[in-house]
Design brief:
By secondary structure, the protein is α+β, with helices and mostly antiparallel strands. It is 53% helix and 20% strand. It has 17 helices and 9 strands. The chain has an 8-stranded antiparallel barrel with strand order 1-5-4-3-2-6-7-8. Helix 6 runs antiparallel to helix 11.
């Protein structure tokens, strides 16, 4: 993977490149190369990739590239770029897999051909001739067959992978002084395709507020988590950042919980079928995420052990790594099933038009939706009020689940009810985190005991030490959660009553 950091500038056809050797004493320009190439962009007929800010491209000089959006802060665009071997024609399976979550069941094919004449100038530090950036001057022709139907020119400044961000500013400033201008940082495919490429993606989370209707709140809530899931699909498939699985799992759990919160507003069969499929996906993601959480805890615990335990800790972590590898293989297999793509399609449809009970859909959210807090809050309060110092681990785990449901419900209603709902949600999150720490410790202890049973005496002894550290954390969480509950159960915090 390559992380691309670039600034795009618009120029008129007659723009003259300034003398880049006059930057300052720190940097200077060195004449580079000129190259010609043809780029063929692949997408669905309705441009699902480009509308999400992604692209799939074949270039005759470098093969296949997938670009995934990461962030945009004009004039700089930061994107993940992934290269794949393969000839012209059909995209390699690995490249197509990486964008599958965005295109879903859509058929991918050529949508645009561009011919580019590229002039490069290297920006280096004179002290060591180390490149800090590259200025690229592109003259682009839009092709239909062999015929040129449009032309444009743009300047890009791309930072070297190890260059500091401030190195961008003096280069951009010099180009602006010469007549370039900062425009919207659009990829070439968007400029070439025009209005169609400017259309929003197929999931848009509209802003909601105190004057929104019930249906607007439901649509926005489902769309927010659906976007989160789809935007992290590629990160999950790549497997280089555990946060991808975490965010996808959170998105899945949130939608499922939100459908539960909205259950009195939704058509029952539609609601239950969608929740069932989300439960299936959540379990597939959960197998990997649980290993990641356990691994993070054990690595932190290992810092408290003597250095001579390092070898045995590594053997324990090797076992966990093998378990995670197996869980990841199962997860990826599930994500390549038609069932997963059908679920994404259903979520996209639900984001646009959820199956609601029409007698409440148009009602003002502020007048109708407060009552949705009664059920999750009542279940949590009844359970927590009945717990004591000796309550079973399973009971505290159930309290954590119910605290999360209460938090999610309050967060859904925050745009409608404002600060009081936000304050309540934060208190619920505090309780959820304390109980979550307890549950994570309980699960870690159980797994370590299981590993100790089939290990050598030394490894078993180290696993026992790690379990002892986790037991301390479990006991601390047991002592802490009643205070978190007391902070949440105050009547004045119940914004909906």
């Amino acid at each position: 993977m390559k992380l691309e950091r670039e600034a795009k500038l618009e120029v008129e056809p007659g723009f003259r490149m300034p003398d880049l050797s006059s930057l300052d004493g720190s940097f200077c320009g060195r004449s580079g190369t000129t190259e010609r190439f043809v780029s063929t962009y692949h997408d669905t007929d309705d441009l699902r990739l480009v509308r999400w800010g992604a692209s799939l491209r074949y270039r005759n000089t470098e093969g296949w590239v997938v670009k995934l959006p990461r962030s945009v802060a004009a004039p700089t665009v930061v994107r993940q770029e992934h290269s794949f071997d393969g000839g012209a024609g059909k995209a390699p399976a690995e490249a197509a897999d990486l964008v599958r979550g965005l295109v879903r069941g859509g058929s991918i094919g050529p949508v645009l051909r561009l011919q580019t004449v590229r002039h490069r100038t290297r920006i280096v530090r004179p002290a060591d001739d180390r490149m800090v950036a590259e200025v690229v001057d592109d003259e682009v022709s839009v092709l239909e067959g062999r015929r040129i139907v449009d032309r444009f020119r743009e300047i890009e400044v791309e930072l070297a992978h190890d260059a500091a961000d401030p190195a961008m500013a003096p280069i951009v400033d010099l180009l602006i002084d010469a007549g370039a201008r900062i425009g919207e940082p659009l990829p070439k495919i968007v400029r070439a395709l025009g209005e169609r490429a400017h259309a929003p993606p197929d999931v848009v989370a509209a802003e909601v507020g105190p004057s929104s209707t019930v249906e607007e709140v439901v649509r926005s809530t489902i769309a927010t988590s659906t976007r989160r899931l789809m935007q992290h699909d590629a990160v999950v498939r790549l497997g280089v950042d555990p946060e991808g699985v975490h965010q996808a799992r959170v998105a899945t759990r949130r939608i499922r919980s939100d459908l539960r919160t909205f259950r009195s507003l939704l058509e029952p069969r539609w609601r239950d079928e969608l929740r069932g499929e989300l439960g299936w996906l959540g379990r597939e993601l959960g197998g990997v995420r649980d290993c990641d959480v356990l691994g993070e805890r054990l690595r932190e615990d290992a810092l408290l052990l003597p250095d001579d335990d390092a070898t045995n800790v590594a053997k324990v972590l090797d076992r966990l790594r093998a378990r995670r590898d197996a869980a990841r293989a199962e997860m990826l297999s599930a994500m390549r099933e038609p069932r997963y793509l059908r679920l994404l399609d259903a979520l996209v449809a639900a984001s646009a038009e959820p199956c609601m009970l029409r007698d409440v859909a148009g009602a003002p959210a502020a007048e109708v939706m407060g009552v949705l807090m009664d059920s999750p809050w009542g279940h949590l309060k009844k359970l927590c009020d009945g717990l004591g110092p000796d309550s079973a681990d399973a009971e505290l785990h159930e309290a954590r689940i119910r605290a999360k449901r209460v938090r999610y419900a309050a967060e859904v209603l925050t745009p409608v009810f404002g600060k009081p709902a936000r304050t309540f949600a934060r208190r619920a999150e505090t309780l959820q985190e304390v109980l979550g720490s307890h549950q994570d410790a309980v699960m870690a202890i159980a797994w370590l005991r299981e590993q100790a049973g089939g290990a050598t005496p030394r490894v078993a002894f180290t696993a026992g030490r790690l379990a002892g550290i986790e037991a301390t954390g479990r006991d601390e969480a047991r002592r802490a959660w009643p205070d978190a509950w007391a902070g949440l159960r105050r009547k004045r915090l119940r914004f909906w009553e």
